[in-house]
Design brief:
With 305 residues, the protein is of the alpha+beta class. The chain is built from 6 helices and 10 strands, in the order H-H-E-E-E-E-H-E-E-E-E-H-H-E-E-H.
Amino acid sequence: MKDLMLLKRPHAISFSKKNIIHPFEPDGISSLEFWSNKNDATFFVVGTSTKKRPNSLTLVRTFDGKVLDMCELGVTKFVPMEAFKTKKSTPGYKPLMHFASPLFDTHPRLMQLRSLLLCLFNGEAIDSIALAGIEHVISVQLGSLPTTSTSTPAAPLPGSIDDDLLLFPQIFIRTYTLALKSSSTRVPYIDLVPMGPSLDLVLRRHLQADPVLLAESLKRPKLAKKDVESGLGDKKKMRNKEVDEMGDLRGRVHIAKQDLNKLQTRKVKALKKSWEEMDVDEEDVQMNGVGQETDSVPRKRRRNE
C-alpha cells in the first residue's frame, strides 16, 4: 500500500488507522462513500486480508459521492520498491501505461481492470508525447492461461463477465524507469530499468457499475471545446471568457478595489469606546497638535450640571 502511494504522491492520502471495512458489504460501501465526500476523493485502494481471501487489494471508483464499481485482486507475490537499488521517478509525474495483451480490449473483466488502473494512475489516451516528459513506465502483462491437465491447455476465455476466475491468467504489474542513451539516429535508445514495486495478482470479486450512474459519469459536452471557442468570434472578445472541459462558457468579472476601512461591519456594543477612552484619545490628539494649525472641529465639552 505504501509503495502504491509513493507512485501517486503527492496526489494521495494514506489512512494510518486500521479501519475494519468490508468493501463488498452495504456497511463498507456506505463507509467508502462517507470517506469520499469527507476527503474529496474519487478513488480508493483498500487492503484487506481474511482467512478466505488473504492479501487482497480492492480498487474502488466513485462518482458524485457514490461507489461506481469495484474490483478485488489477490496478491500472490510482491517485491517492494526498496528491493530495487535503482533511480526512482520524480513525484508528480504521470506514468506511461502499457497493457501487453489484447484481452484488455476484449474481455469485460479485464477491460474493467484496465479502466480502473488508468483511473488510478491518471492515465489518458494521447497520440504522441516527448520522450523527455516520460520518467517511468507501468507495464501490465498477463501470464499464460491455466491448464486443465499437465499437457492440455485450457480453452480460451468465453468472454463473459461471469467467467470462472480459475480460467483467468495471472496479472503481472511491473514498474520501470526510462534511461535515454545515445544512438545512431535522432531517436535515442531507451533502456528500461526496474524501479519497483512488482506485483503478481489474480482476479477475485468485482462489482459492476450501475447503468444509470455509469451513463451519468460518461456524459460529454454536445460541442467540443474548440468548436465552442471558435463560435465566440474575435479573439479580442475572448478576454475574460473561457470554455471548460464540459463545453460550458464561463466569464470573469473584474470589480474595483474595495476599501476595507469603509466596510460596514456588525456593530457590537462591547467594542464601542467608553467616554473615558474617548477623552484620553482626544487629549492625545491635542497634545500632538500643539504649535500646528489644524482645521479640525473643536471638541464639544459636556455641560456640567
